TrEMBL record:
It comes from Podospora didyma. It comes from the Eukaryota. This is Protein kinase domain-containing protein.
Length: 135
């Protein structure tokens, strides 16, 4: 397997958000979206399944808490960036602190107090989503 990153047209290393063995994510600053794609120039099964899921949501009218799907871009899919902030922040927190964010709280409490606020756009800034549980 080659270590070379195969970028989608118009993207370079300066746009790279994440890269691994299963895919890459690049930021399109002009549209405020990201493009997720397999690391080679072929659509992967995982990308195809994710595309089908997003298309079903679109067909059924969408949901405020789900990433907005903007269609395909070459061998990847284009989605919005805002809803993934919580997932990214949680992963980063766990890596830095060796524990899950909000450890000890029930999943339901986290969903109702933190995630729901993010999903429904009730927080103007990322920091506001943490305020219910600040010590």
């Amino acid at each position: 397997m080659s270590d070379e990153i195969h970028f989608l047209s118009g993207f370079t290393t300066k746009d790279l958000v994440a890269y691994g063995i299963s895919g890459l994510v690049v930021l399109d600053t002009s549209t405020g979206t990201v493009v997720k794609a397999s690391p080679n120039e072929e659509r992967s099964n995982a990308t195809a399944v994710e595309q089908q899921i997003y298309e079903r949501f679109v067909q059924r009218g969408g949901h405020k808490g789900i990433l907005i799907y903007y269609g395909t871009f070459e061998w990847g899919i284009r989605i919005d960036t805002e809803a993934d902030i919580f997932a990214f922040g949680s992963t980063l927190y766990e890596l830095m602190n060796e524990s899950r964010p909000y450890a000890g709280l029930l999943d339901r409490a986290i969903e109702e107090s933190v995630i729901a606020k993010c999903w429904y756009g009730e927080c103007e800034k990322c920091r506001q989503s943490c305020s219910p549980f600040e010590r």
